[in-house]
Amino acid sequence: MGAFSLITDAEARVPRVVVVGLASCFGCQLQITNAEEHLMEILGQIDVRYWQLVTSEDGVEDFDVAIIEGAVTTRESEETCKFLRAHAAHVMAIGACACTGGVTGMASDYLGARTDLVYDGEAPDACGEMIEPRPVSAVIDVDSEVRCCPIDPYDFVAALQRALYGSNRLPEPRTMCADCKRNETECFFEQGVLCLGLVTQAACGARCVNLGRPCNGCAGMSSAANLEAARLSCETYGVPVESFDKALEMFNQVKLTDSETL
Amino acid sequence: MLYRVMDKRELPALVRAFMESYEVVAPVKRGQGYVFDVIESPDDIEIGYTQTASSPKKYLMPPTETLMKFDARMNLVQDYVHEVTPRVIFGVHTCDINAMNRLDTALIGGKYVDPYYKAHRDATLVVGISCTPNDKCFCHLWGADEAQFGYDLFLHDIGDKYLVSMSNVEATNILEAACEISEATDEDRIAFRQATRTRQSAFNKDIPDVQDVAMLMDVFHSDPFWEELGGRCLSCSACASVCPTCFCFDIRDVLAPDGKTGERQRTWDACTSPNFAAVAGGYNFRPTGRERVRHRMYHKLNGFMVNHDRMLCVGCGRCVAACKTGINPIEVLRFFKRKGADHAK
Amino acid sequence: MQSNMPVGTIEVDALRAAPEFMSGKEMLLGNAYRPWPARITSMRDLTSHEKLVEMRFIDERVREAFVHEPGQFLELSLFGVGEAPISITSSPTKQGFVELCIRRAGTVTSALHSMRAGDIVGIRGPFGRGFPVDKFRGNDVLIVAGGLGIAPVRSLINYIHDNRSDFGKVTIVYGSRTPADIMFRDQFEMWRHRADFELYLTVDHPDDQWDGEVGVVTEPMKRLDISPENTFGVVCGPPVMYKFVVQVMREKNIDYDHIYLDFERHMKCGMGKCGHCQIGHQYCCIDGPVFNYWEAKNIQGSM
User: Fold this and answer.
1) Which residue out of A1, A168, A180, A184 would a mutagenesis test of the B interface target, given it has the greatest number of B Cβ atoms within 10 Å?
2) pLDDT in tens, C177-216
3) What is the ipTM of this complex?
4) Interface residue ranges in chain A relative to chain C, Cβ cutoff 8 Å
5) From 3.40.309.10, 3.40.50.2300, 3.40.50.80, 3.40.228.10, which CATH number describes the C133-262 domain?
6) Among candidates C146, C296, C141, which has minimal Cα distance to C236?
7) Residues of A with CB below 8 A from C81's CB?
8) What gap in Å lies between CA B290 and CA C301, rounded to an integer?
9) In terms of pTM, does the model score above 0.90?
10) Which domains does chain A have, with CATH numbers?
């Protein structure tokens, strides 16, 4: 855990931040700019040393906070992560790809076969040395995460502040259903419809369910997820267990493969 | 208790009278179920509702509430006025009235008064309504099928009329001004007796009535049953969210985007959340579902009883519907029943 | 919603607006969620990861009303970071100041470590049930502490010291990981010459200079000669320690309700509401954190 506080350090200086994108759609970096109402206030608290999306300077080595978007899919990006970890006091993973492997992680099974299929046997050099996609935490220690696909700009702001100023909030691996109860939305299972909220990390306040759609698990599985019990729920409410397992692949393929829970 | 009789057709007039000086919340239809929500007209009310998915505790203790505002740089509290809306919660069943009484005990009773809860409670009138139990209700097992106190008016359904218990001057004044009320006749009294009998016999007889539950919670505290029950906990805390008596919370600081000021908030929390009993440094006193579920049941069915002579469960049955893996007090009662079978092991 | 509605309010005023007629007690109890500002008056290193922080309330009324028992705790606020429950390590006899022994354990304590004398923190409390010093009066006291467990019992030790003639023999057994982790050593060593005072320091991992005992606290305990009928036991330390220390105290025939244990849980609100510190049917923050062993035995999940 990040037992450090940048601002209250004796020689207080503006924390230096880098934002790095790995394999992703860059949507989460874009989401940061969507906090435009407060963007200047936020930028006033940090010194952005490098941001792939908006700066062109390269080779920055002095920074306090490293924000990483995207999954690790190559040896080169693995090295990038290690470099960031070695230089930053705080590493933050943002978005599903960086936190769980996300959509990118779907390729982690049969990577070679898939690559052959796409590139007809010869992947171009530009792809780098490909490895099975994995979350940043599979490569280096991560101090904080902003979940979901894409991230919520205000969740990001709050997480950045916790990194800058410290917070006594412990990570809470609760799953999502309590949010639906607070929101007083109807449970999809009561209608025999699959929803991944049963095992998904509570993070978004059940945003999709509030919009009338079941959870697809973009926040990733909670570390306290009880898959066996969730499958039991599926059986009880007439939802095919196979559809539950299949649905988990979209955002949780890597974790499932790693922990061999399937 | 003082009581009078009013014609059911007078109900909209009563609601409208409350709406003149209060925000009125009442059970309304949402999707397949019911929720307590602000009404625009008496017609919105589903007075014959079976059970709302979540309880009216949200009006006494909102899911997230600001306690104070602060200046983070100076490390000082800023001036802050916490406004409380005067409100009538209309159409509350006895389980929820009993639940509010338990919340009062926990949050107003004792050495420390929770000023935020108290402000909401003081600004709230409660109008109760009699109900017919559904298959998940077991309020009668905990004596929560009657509301002895904790309401301002209570409407007992006696056919075409309500027998109204009146326990508050303000509510009674509004009632008397808005509606024709009369002394009860012998016919009304008999109708009331019939109604209570009908209700009493309507409870689901498959839910076991077990003696000495609090003591059984101690006696079977180490039984493998808790592994079985807690082992299927999804760690979602839906149970606590819908529970009308769960009052545990977290206190957290939230900074404004500029990082200079912020709010200290309290937000619903639950002992079934995995990190609830963790201390700084990471040690978790209840690390698994077994301990967490057992602790929750223990507090409901023993702990609160030992301290306050009342179960913290009111048998509303909401968690029975909310928990997707069937963890609820009925399962605990069934376990005790099994232990009481002739050839139990 | 109608606009003509009367609206109830709770007001949380900044310090400068605290009305003059309010007493210190009202300030502390009226809205017990509200911290009052205190200034850090001194800060010194006890070990590499523990500091002794002395604080003083800015408002005189609060300063006078904030009276604690040994074993009680307070909630320390750093706005933006949050709160942490901390045992008060100074004796009630030290008036006007509050001392805390702060281990860098979580984010609040880490942030506090980087603060300096003159900085302002928020404090609310004092909370909980401390050691029953009135019962201890006239009796011997056997105090067993491990690691940071010395923080709350130091309050008791100093209290006994300041009212020395009221108490019988005082024995302190204090275990630390290494000699460098021993806190308040100078202070305790100063008393060694007294006939009515015994001190046993043990460490798990000695260094080259260490000439004291090596091992667990129960070893010196076993050698003690105590008179069980007029001895009270006090235990405070890491969770694993309790069972073994209590066992030895029981072997020495100290009665169930003469053994006092100081429990650690996450007291978030401090007033028996939020539920985080529940142990069985009890709240560590109001029913404890000090429980006697008889009470503790009656609490599911206490040990």
Assistant:
1) A184
2) 999 999 998 887 877 777 788 899 999 999 999 988 999 9
3) 0.92
4) 1-5, 8-10, 161, 165-169
5) 3.40.50.80
6) C146
7) 5, 165-168
8) 12
9) yes
10) 16-165 (3.40.50.700), 177-259 (no CATH)
